[in-house]
Amino acid sequence: MSSALQVGAADTAQANPAAAEQLSPPGATTQRPSTAPGRTPAAGDATAPGEAPAVGDTTAPAPSDSAAATAPGETHAAQPDTPTATGAESSGTTPDAPLSTPSAATARTSPAALRAARVVGRLTWRIVRPLAAIAVILALWEIAPRTGLVDQVFLPPLSTVLQAFADLVRNGQMQDHVQASLTRALTGFALALLTAVPIGVAIAWNRLVADLLGPVLELFRNTAALALLPVFILILGIGETSKIALVVYAAFFPILLNTISGVRAVDPLLLKSAASLGLSPVRLFQKVVWPAALPSIFTGIRMAASSSILVLVAAEMAGARAGLGYLITAAQQNFQIPQMYAGIIAISLLGLLFNGVLVAVERRLSRWRTA
Fold it and tell me: What are the residue boundaries of the ABC transmembrane type-1 domain, all occurrences included (predicted)?
């Protein structure tokens, strides 16, 4: 019976050594079948000590220190062969795991990039659109006279006008005329600003002052400034005083009316809230009324700036020895058409400069409006 079991165990060991080791009783040593001489070991056969493994044999990995440290005299049970892990499995990563690629990072940041691109495009279009319209007008100005659509005698090409402008700057005439016009415009504008704002606040703040000055101001504000030019020249003379007075008159009413409108449009709830805090009338005006009325006041100031320049040019055409209005009239009378258009361009640039300065001042004084 025992010999039959030994023969069966030998056959099992020869067929499956791992199973034979598991079936062997504890303490027994399993004898592996040796390879017959001249026979190549199979893929599952174990190699004897000192024997070189055949090509294609897979050797089991060396046991770790913890597995090798066993008590003396104790025999290890053979473990079933396990396939060797691939490079991806040994590194702890699976081949199908998603990797972080540049396209994924771009997809994560794409909304912010799109918003930034949209803002830049909107700002660019806001700047390019008016410049494109101006460029089209200037191109037509240059092309129309040269192609015969307009007579060059009455409308020279833009390049000819710019050359005349450069000549006036080079010989100093343009600077003299700009300085004369700018001095008159700034003087009259400053006087109008210093008088119109306080009067407008008084009319809007005090009903008695409004009843007293309202009819007089309503009468004069409907009278055009240029209609009073002969009156100013007759009373004040043909010198600088009449021109500055005309500028004051033209700039006074836009500032006055917008100041009255701005002060009266202050929210009554703001006034009641400030009064409940115990603010004095001066502090109430400084902290509540003035900031609320400032946008409307600056609208009138910008309107007054453009009106003062237009009226001043007309006054300089009537009687002056210097100024942009005088330059335009003198060039037209002497049939110096390019110089005449150069004076017109100078007036346009002066108006743009005036408006740009006022816009910058308004933004500086009303920074709380930026939202």
Answer: 178-362
SS3 92: coil
- How many residues are recorded in the chain? 371
C-alpha R_g of the chain = 49
Task: Check: CB of residue 299 under 8 Å from CB of residue 265.
Answer: no
What is the DSSP annotation of 15-74?
A: H-HHHHHHHSPTTPPPPPPPPPTTPPPPTTPPPPTTPPPPTT--PPPPPPHHHH---TTP
Contacts for 169 with CB less than 8 Å, ≥ 6 apart: 175
Query: How deeply is 110 buried, as exposed, middle or buried, from its count of CB atoms within 10 A (0-12, 13-18, 19+)?
Result: exposed
Record the pTM.
0.62
- List pLDDT tens digits, range 200-229: 998 988 888 888 888 888 888 888 888 888
**110, two tokens:** 């794409």
- What is the Cα–Cα distance from 30 to 32, expressed in whole angstroms? 6
Residue 341 pLDDT level (bands cut at 50, 70, 90) = very high
Give the least confident one: 60-69, 98-107, 225-234, 334-343.
Answer: 60-69
Show Cβ contacts of residue 36 under 8 Å, excluding neighbours closer than 6 positions: none
State the residue for tokens 């939202």.
371
Cα torsion at 13, 15, 17, 22 (round to 10°)? -70
pLDDT in tens, 142-166: 999 999 888 888 999 999 999 999 9
